[in-house]
Amino acid sequence: MSLTIRFSLMAAALALPVLGAEPIRLHPRNPHYFEFRGRPTVLVTSGEHYGSVLNPDFDYKAYLEALGGQGLNLTRVFMGDICERRGNAQSPGSPLSPRPGRFLTPWARTAVEGYSGGGNKFDLDRWDPAYFERLLDFCREASRRGVVVEVVLFGAFYRDEWWRLSPLHADSNINGVGDLPMTEFHTLKHPTLVARQKEMVRKIVRELRDADNVYFEICNEPYWAKGIPEVDPTIKAQQWPADMMEWQKAIAETITEAEAGQSARHLIAINVANTYYRVEEPNPQISVLNFHYAFPPRAVTDSYSLNRVIAFDETSNGCSARERRREAWAFLMAGGAVYDNLDFSFSIDDPTGSSPTGRRQGCREVREQLGALLRFMNSLDFVRAQPMAGAEITGLPQSVKAYGLRRAGQEYAVYLFKGDSKEDSAEVGTLSLDLPKGSYSVEWINPVDARPVSTEQRKHDGGRLQVAPPLFQDDLTLVIRKR
Predict the structure, then answer these.
(1) What is 148-182 written as a DSSP string?
(2) Using an 8 Å Cβ cutoff, are 321 and 290 in contact?
(3) pLDDT tens by residue, 142-188
(4) Do 36 and 148 touch, CB atoms closer than 8 A?
(5) What is the Cα–Cα distance from 284 to 377, expressed in whole angstroms?
(6) pTM
(7) What band does 296 get if pLDDT is binned at 50, 70 and 90?
(8) What domains can you pick out in the chain, each with its CATH number?
């Protein structure tokens, strides 16, 4: 059976919702990866700015069709405790910036005027049926296309004006909840607020109990909950205050308690850091460790021993195809299982991301290349593979970086990319790997489209096998398989 046919059959199988199926979980043979609908899974996407549910003017069916049509299998969505009043400068019309009066949240509107984001205030004693109908339909439509949904329960506000837009701020609700500084929202200092937060979590978890294509992230970028350098110059670094960590633990426990008695439970993720942070002892309730802007992929190499899924959960400047391709291939070849590009080409007026105008960038090329990466990953037996230590890949000049996966004696995949220096040599050296005796196919793959550049058959007497890469401009992938 050809690889093309195998990919098509796999995509068709993953696109079929399975009633009563176990939710996406850590793979039982290798917890660095997922199992979804009975298949080993990595998640790769280029998704919208997290407003699919909270923004009723965003056509999420067209958006999900665009993702599924390009072979991508993940989307990330905020739940409505936070929105942005203005459009993102990179993406006017960002889905996370609903038009005045159009912010949809778990809580119902009242007849009381005065919400600063337009329209009436919220009643925290009443759920909004329209919100939960939209949330459930969004997850169903994603499921039909084989797309997994990362449900982000809370988010850092970054600035007071965004905190005042939250339904949980005292100025935005009629219940007198949330009269406190932004810096104390993600703590346990205010029991009345915490009770409302937990109510929301339990409600969302119960509503999504039958969704097999969902996992939960506790909070987006909680390490900026007390301020960010762009707004407050006294903030010099990411923060992990003890009270914020205790709050996250309490939310994780709330998710677990809400699913008590269920035969299968959803995975829980935590957003660890931007770029890098060394995780020493993760909460045992946490299965997915999310990092933002995690290139080079040190977050994977230093956290691999924790036996969790390691995720590259958000990018910056998301529409540079070369940068996104290098990040994604390096991260997955280092042992990561998720790559999620923040794609500013999707907007309220253009949910397919197909017609960028003005300041809004185009990301079609990025999505096509990430789809090629996902097809390539699905051609590997990655569940039985291990990342290669740096010393295992030799013979390359210093200007060429390499990350690889190996199934010892059977299958090896190595991703090569050149540095950014103009002085980087055009020479790429001769790559050397330690292989047992046998006959092998040696194939060079173009990472842009995952298509072969060249293939040869080699007989090897054992020890170091040397292979000379063809000349390449930016990056190249080697696949060696035992015949």
Answers:
(1) EEEEEEEE---SHHHHTTSTTSTTTBSS----S-G
(2) no
(3) 999 999 999 999 999 999 999 999 999 999 999 999 999 999 999 99
(4) yes
(5) 28
(6) 0.94
(7) very high
(8) 3-384 (3.20.20.80), 386-482 (2.60.40)
